[in-house]
């Protein structure tokens, strides 16, 4: 209720305790706390001294007991107000006493005025009242109230002196005291506002940090989903697609009575399923591709070309896949090797499924500052613009491969270009910048493989 208390969470939120903790740690809050305690203690001391002086100077009579009872009532009202405000400020009660602040101030001032009329010893209680007036009232009404209280003090001291004319000290003392109280009160108000602004800024900072953490978490979740989608599409999905197609070819061979060919195709199904199982276990362990764990990129690409030819043959497609190397192979960081291998897997899978090609060439070049890979086929080709429109219209989850490749390459600050035309085959060209500091020197391996 009294405005002299430390600024409290007037805008109560779910972070009240955090805000109070942060405010208590602020230098301005510590100053406010000292001023608040000093004011309350000063009021109590001045009230006690006034009662003692009154009793000692006039003796214990009926009027003195009356003034003492009124002084005790004033002390009780003041203590009740400050206690209620403090309990509300610390969250120990839901009762908000601030709505009764003006009534409380009026009652305290009225009780003091009654005491002042009975004894000039209570005049010095005016100084704590100045601070209450400044804080609870708007500035102009507060200055008016302080002026009236000062006049009352001067008149009380003049009447108590018994002099026909007020003594100069009795006039200047209260006036200087009032002026000092106004200046101090305004400084207190500035500190109060600063502490409140600090509290609000701290609340805004906490909200901003929480929102940022949530957005970063969401971005991380989306990025991980995109990564898993790329991995699944470039490995498991393609493997399952190959299994389905080769199994159909094996079924046809069985119907034709060609048991040997059917057996070969079923063996390929088993091999592909085993490789997919290894990839699935790799995802669970969070490791890199099994094909890259024990071999270089060129060795993995060589096996991929051989597997492509075998898979195509099992499906009755006369496809020849060739691997070419330009320059001296360097041991690339794992993200680069994984991106290039996945790009080759996705591109060659598209060659088998859609190109109708007889030849495919995977060409890798190590050029010092960058590594390039081109996957070429002599198939039927297509219109890239028409393909983009078709992919945007698909809702069955297909058509993810090219977008996945672009995301992989873009994550490494590389570029991907797709060149094709109906009847002219297709070229997928990938360029990845190589940071020399990130490259692990290794023995050169690879070469031209037919």
Topology (SSEs and partners):
Elements: H1 16-24, H2 27-58, H3 62-89, H4 101-118, H5 126-136, H6 139-161, H7 168-255, H8 259-285, H9 290-293, H10 297-314, E1 320-326, H11 334-355, E2 359-366, E3 370-377, H12 384-393, H13 401-411, E4 415-420, E5 426-433
Helix pairs in contact: 1-7, 2-3, 2-7, 3-4, 4-5, 5-6, 5-7, 6-7, 7-8, 7-11, 7-13, 10-11, 11-13
Q: What is the residue-averaged pLDDT?
A: 76
Task: State the order of secondary-structure elements, H for helix, E for strand.
Answer: HHHHHHHHHHEHEEHHEE
Name the overall outline: rod-shaped
Helix segment tally: 13
Task: Please describe what this structure looks like.
This protein has 450 residues and is α+β, with helices and mostly antiparallel strands. The protein folds into two domains: 16-214, no CATH class; 317-450, Histidine kinase-like ATPase, C-terminal domain (Heat Shock Protein 90). Helix content is 67%, strand content 8%. It is built from 13 helices and five strands. It has helices at residues 16-24, 27-58, 62-89, 101-118, 126-136, 139-161, 168-255, 259-285, 290-293, 297-314, 334-355, 384-393, 401-411; strands at 320-326, 359-366, 370-377, 415-420, 426-433. It has a five-stranded mixed β-sheet, with helices on one face. Strand 4 (415-420) and strand 5 (426-433) form a beta hairpin. Helix 7 (168-255) packs antiparallel against helix 8 and helix 11 (334-355) packs antiparallel against helix 13 (401-411). The chain starts with 15 loop residues before the first helix and ends in a 17-residue tail after the last strand. Mean pLDDT is 76; it is low at 3-25 and 440-450.
């Amino acid at each position: 209720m009294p405005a002299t208390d430390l600024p409290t969470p007037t805008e109560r939120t779910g972070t009240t305790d955090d805000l109070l903790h942060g405010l208590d740690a602020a230098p301005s809050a510590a100053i406010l706390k000292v001023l608040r305690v000093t004011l309350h203690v000063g009021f109590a001391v001045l009230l006690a001294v006034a009662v003692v002086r009154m009793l000692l100077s006039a003796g214990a009579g009926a009027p003195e007991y009356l003034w003492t009872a009124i002084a005790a009532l004033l002390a009780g009202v003041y203590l009740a107000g400050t206690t209620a405000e403090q309990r509300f400020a610390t969250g120990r009660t839901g009762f908000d006493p601030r709505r009764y602040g003006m009534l409380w101030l009026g009652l305290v001032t009225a009780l003091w005025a009654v005491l002042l009329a009975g004894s000039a010893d209570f005049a010095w209680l005016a100084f704590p009242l100045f601070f209450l007036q400044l804080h609870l009232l708007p500035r102009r009404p507060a200055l008016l109230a302080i002026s009236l209280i000062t006049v009352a003090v001067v008149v009380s001291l003049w009447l108590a002196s018994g002099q026909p004319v007020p003594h100069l000290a009795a006039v200047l003392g209260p006036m200087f005291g009032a002026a000092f109280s106004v200046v101090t009160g305004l400084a207190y108000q500035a500190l109060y506002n600063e502490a409140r602004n600090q509290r609000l800024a701290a609340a805004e900072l906490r909200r901003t940090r929480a929102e940022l953490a949530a957005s970063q978490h969401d971005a991380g979740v989306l990025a991980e989903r995109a990564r898993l989608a790329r991995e699944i599409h470039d490995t498991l999905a393609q493997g399952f697609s190959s299994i389905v197609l080769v199994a159909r070819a094996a079924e046809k061979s069985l119907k034709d009575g060609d048991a040997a060919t059917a057996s070969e195709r079923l063996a390929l199904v088993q091999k592909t399923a085993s490789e997919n199982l290894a990839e699935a276990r790799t995802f669970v362990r969070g490791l890199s591709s099994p094909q890259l764990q024990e071999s270089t990129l060129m060795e993995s690409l060589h096996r991929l070309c051989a597997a492509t030819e075998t898979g195509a043959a099992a499906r009755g497609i006369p496809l020849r896949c060739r691997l070419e190397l330009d320059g001296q192979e360097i041991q690339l960081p794992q993200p680069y090797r994984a991106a290039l291998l996945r790009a080759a897997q996705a591109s060659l899978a598209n060659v088998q499924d859609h190109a109708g090609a007889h030849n495919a060439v995977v060409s890798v070049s190590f050029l010092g500052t960058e590594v390039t890979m081109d996957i070429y086929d002599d198939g039927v080709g297509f219109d890239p613009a028409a393909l983009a429109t078709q992919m945007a219209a698909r809702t069955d989850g297909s058509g993810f491969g090219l977008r996945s490749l672009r995301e992989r390459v873009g994550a490494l600050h590389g570029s991907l270009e797709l060149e094709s035309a109906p009847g002219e085959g297709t070229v997928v060209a990938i360029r990845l910048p190589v940071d020399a500091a990130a490259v692990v020197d290794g023995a050169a391996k690879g070469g031209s493989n037919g």
